[in-house]
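Batch manifest, entry 17 of 40.
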Amino acid sequence: MREILYIIMLSLGSIIAIFILTKLMGYRQMSQMSMFDYVNGITIGSIAAEMSTSLEKNFVQPLTAMIVYALAAIVLSWFSSKSIKARRLIEGKPLVLMNNGELYRENLKKAKIDVTEFLTQCRNSGYFDVSKLETAILEDNGKISFLPKSSDRPVTPSDMNLSPEQDFMVANVILDGRIMEENLRHTGNDEKWLMNQIKGQGAGKVEDVLLATCDSSNQVTVFLKNSRKEPKDVLM
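Output type: structure tokens
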């Protein structure tokens, strides 16, 4: 029983340590990872797993190793922000895979991407005809950015000499049946106003609302809770 409790305490300790170190290293560990971020994240995770099961060893040793890796990531991130050369060395630099209708075979080899995989990435981004692409660039996070030819890109309001109003972020004023008071205050409204808005869209009380948003024009959109299930064959 004592051994099980010890494992539980070590596991919780490793989770807390990973959470704190990830906070210090920044959210880049969870998105848009460079090659170093990827390797560093795997290593810290492996050390944390070792820490959580080290029954006979001193848990301070793996914890120290985790801190060292985290500090290394912070230092390298600092160097990257101060020096372009260091940034390119640590994070890598974009690689042009296609430009002006020409595929660069050597760059595809350098990126370890064959033509079939490149075509798959094109389709995943909505480009089923490669001839409609002007440029394709492999970013340092491993994703490919595509620039369509001007004749094949979507029409924009500026092409039609239109000046639409700027869109802004909406505020979530109700989440899962609970009023987000701080967000509501940010919109400049109160709960009485909000209740009138949701009642006008079929909600008898706040608990009936799964999500309610408010835009910069005080337009409220309400999504009600319901127990209905979508037909299983809708995507078959």
